[in-house]
């Protein structure tokens, strides 16, 4: 009999609480991410509701970051310095512990989504996987040999500084770094860059070419540093404007400049894909974290 678990996807704009077995969502409750007090109280209430239907055996949390994911740290499960008002220092694990005996495992939302796409989605059969989300922010989850990458913190792909195109005068809007990649091509950055809601700009708008070039610069860095077999790209911007991915894929081989001799447009197309699980990648990843058990750490290439 499969273990019934719950997953929490805590995003910058919305929160999703789900329950089910073996990566299969059977119940879900969705609500906006507002203040920590209000949002986490709703999380706790949703978990209690699911637990009353049928006992929850473990919880996985896939959270926006930066967040402390080392279970040995005193501030495990705490949101670190974030531009999201009121959330710096918020404890996201405590409100989810609806029973003292309930195991809880936490990781970033993008590491969880990478895990879901690796196990059940567009990156099945790939050992090294990167999941990018481009939406309210830009984040990246990285798996090496199927294991989510941690270290001093966790990957912060969105704050990589990329090479800028000649003549591009946009200053960027990241409150920390201005023109890091998040400050150039996240949803709020595009609104500032375009002077309008980017969702209203059609795929033929010439401004998307520069966005695709910026994305291609990031992709080149990730390919050269992590050698992924698959890069899955989700989030509202990427899914809403799939032409960006196609354009970035055509630009990428030129940026690599023949250094990876067989990386042509065909290989680029095979490497860069949309998520198979779409918006369910995060919550399913959270359920997989729950199934892995509390304090999920790499030991001999396995999640234990």
TrEMBL record:
<dbReference type="InterPro" id="IPR000600">
    <property type="entry name" value="ROK"/>
</dbReference>
<dbReference type="InterPro" id="IPR043129">
    <property type="entry name" value="ATPase_NBD"/>
</dbReference>
<protein>
    <submittedName>
        <fullName>ROK family protein</fullName>
    </submittedName>
</protein>
<comment type="similarity">
    <text>Belongs to the ROK (NagC/XylR) family.</text>
</comment>
<dbReference type="Pfam" id="PF00480">
    <property type="entry name" value="ROK"/>
</dbReference>
<dbReference type="InterPro" id="IPR049874">
    <property type="entry name" value="ROK_cs"/>
</dbReference>
